[in-house]
Design brief:
By secondary structure, this protein is α/β, with parallel strands linked by helices. The protein has 16 helices and 16 strands. Helix 1 packs across helix 16.
Length: 388
């Protein structure tokens, strides 16, 4: 008789956009895997890249506390949000307060949307006693250079007529007349706090690759608004000026993230860290991988973008660093082994391909996403686990 291998499998997927959260995906993979390899030791670690959905993934893998809040949304309306507190650290997902998903398609106007609620989340983290605050960026519906966030933290502004503080919270289109921005109060409130801007976007604030030129149109900006916003952010950056250390945050990597929210964080002295690396470090993934024999990750569509700073690439790189094989289970696989193998990925299987190979309808991937993913995981386990 053959012996049975008791493998230790770390299951660390991203969300399957539109169908499964990261936690649901991890549970589906685990359910299917156990059908084939019931004696394997499975550890489930849902992962996100610091953008939308990050706070849904992190509490499942950390001994932390979610602090529910109501903050101002991108259009000024109240929206539910939360701060995740883990010891002396706190995690903020900017998209909860300024995400594009909070702006109806017929109301998308980045000249008016604000990051004010992000500042409320940061301030709540400070009040809760956090000494390190990580702000995850991505999926924003704003283009205000983080001015709204600065306003919520107590920044003041002036224009040719006098006080213009209110303009900071009125969207990017209101910033063009500002002549000076005073950050004394925000810096005082954040004294002794380590601020981290977590983003995989390295764009500067201005220019063709900047916040407006690179992302304004997808947030609803017309060509005319793109030009107006670019000019407004240029004047706003001049009003904010350089940091006390003499550095210009406008040209720093990541300043253009989340419509320039990265710029405001960097102006306050934040350090930039890649979003996925920040999340993986928070989860202690390196140690978890070291204790595993196999790492299984995944996402909805495994394509060329996945290999450039997304969850799958980050998890695979961490596995490669520990000498562990990484398997990708995805809704669709649109890259081949020649493209993904150099990234430390040993194999990739897709739900849609699996359904088609078995003569099933592709639509099942959307009608029963958890079940279809579990079926794929069960078949994958036959190759990667089971009798030796």
């Amino acid at each position: 008789m053959g012996t049975v291998r008791h493998m230790r499998v770390l299951i660390a997927p991203d969300k399957f956009a539109g169908t499964l959260t990261a936690r649901q995906a991890a549970e589906a993979i685990a359910e299917g895997w156990r059908r084939t390899a019931p004696t394997d030791e499975l550890e489930l670690v849902p992962v996100a890249d610091g953008g939308p959905g990050s706070l849904d993934a992190l509490p499942a893998s950390l001994d932390g506390e979610l602090l529910p809040l109501t903050v101002q949304g991108p259009l000024g309306e109240p929206v539910p949000a939360a701060v995740l507190r883990v010891g002396g650290a706190a995690y903020v997902e900017a998209a909860q307060a300024c995400g594009l998903h909070l702006v109806p398609a017929d109301r998308r106007d980045p000249t008016r949307t604000t990051t004010y609620g992000v500042g409320e989340l940061v301030l709540a983290a400070v009040v809760a006693g956090a000494r390190r605050i990580v702000v995850g960026m991505g999926g924003s519906g704003t283009n205000d250079g983080g001015a709204g966030m600065l306003a919520a933290l107590g920044a003041r502004a002036t224009d040719a007529a006098g006080d213009a503080t209110a303009a900071l919270a009125q969207g990017g289109g209101a910033l063009g007349a500002i002549t000076a921005v005073d950050l004394a109060v925000p810096r005082q409130r954040l004294a002794g706090v380590q601020l981290v801007a977590a983003t995989d976007v390295d764009n500067p604030l201005l220019g063709l690759r900047g916040a407006t030129g690179g992302y304004g149109p997808q947030k609803g900006a017309t060509p005319e608004q793109v030009m107006a916003l670019e000019g407004a952010l240029e004047r706003y950056a001049a009003a904010v000026g350089r940091r006390p250390d003499g550095k210009d945050p406008a040209v720093a990597l990541g300043a253009g993230a989340a419509g320039g929210l990265g710029y405001a964080l960097l102006a306050l002295g934040a350090e930039r860290a890649p979003g996925i690396e920040s999340v993986l470090a928070t989860l202690g993934l390196a140690d978890r991988i070291a204790a595993a024999d196999l790492v299984v990750t995944g996402e909805g569509c495994f394509d060329w973008q996945s290999l450039r700073g997304k969850v799958v690439a980050g998890v695979a790189a961490a596995a490669q660093g520990q000498g562990r094989p990484a398997l990708v289970l995805a809704g669709r696989v649109e890259v081949d082994a020649r493209e993904y193998a150099p990234h430390g990925i040993s194999g990739a299987l897709g739900v849609v391909d699996d359904l088609q190979a078995r003569g099933r309808r592709e639509q099942e991937a959307f009608e029963r996403p958890a079940g279809a993913l579990a079926d794929l995981a069960a078949r994958a386990a036959r190759t990667w686990s089971g009798p030796a």
